[in-house]
TrEMBL record:
Keyword Protein biosynthesis attributed: yes
Pfam families: IF-2B
Species classification: Eukaryota, Metazoa, Ecdysozoa, Nematoda, Chromadorea
Identification of the protein by name: Uncharacterized protein
Family as reported in the entry's similarity comment: Belongs to the eIF-2B alpha/beta/delta subunits family.
Length: 115
């Protein structure tokens, strides 16, 4: 991490909190980056903005956690999640099709989208 100047990640979903749902392991990379004072940038289209309010890993909606085939079989306890939740305090900026914004601005952007 000493030589890394920035971390760039995508997102399966951008939550109303400003946090992101992305492939498992993203939160680990972001936590390490923050501890080394390396900025983390998220690239995601506004169509991925979701009106969900998870506070931690346990609050992730099951539609994000598991493949549809697993949900249909109702075998959730036998499967491992495909994604994790990265809280907004680990993110520096979210780069979207409408411009760049701080994670805390996602809620305002969602209001604009739904009005």
């Amino acid at each position: 991490m000493e030589r890394i100047q920035a971390v760039l990640v995508g997102a399966e979903g951008v939550m109303e909190t400003g946090g992101i749902i992305n492939k498992i392991g993203t939160v680990n990379v972001c936590v390490i980056a923050k501890s080394r004072h390396v900025p983390v940038y998220v690239c995601a289209e506004t169509i991925k903005f979701v009106r969900e309010f998870p506070l931690n890993q346990a609050d992730i909606p099951k539609e994000f956690l598991y493949r549809t085939s697993v949900i249909e079989k109702n075998n959730l306890e036998l499967e491992h999640p495909d994604v994790d939740y990265t809280a907004p305090e680990f993110l520096t900026l979210i780069i979207t099709d409408v411009g760049a914004m701080k994670p805390e601005a996602v809620g305002e952007e969602l209001i604009k989208m739904y009005i």
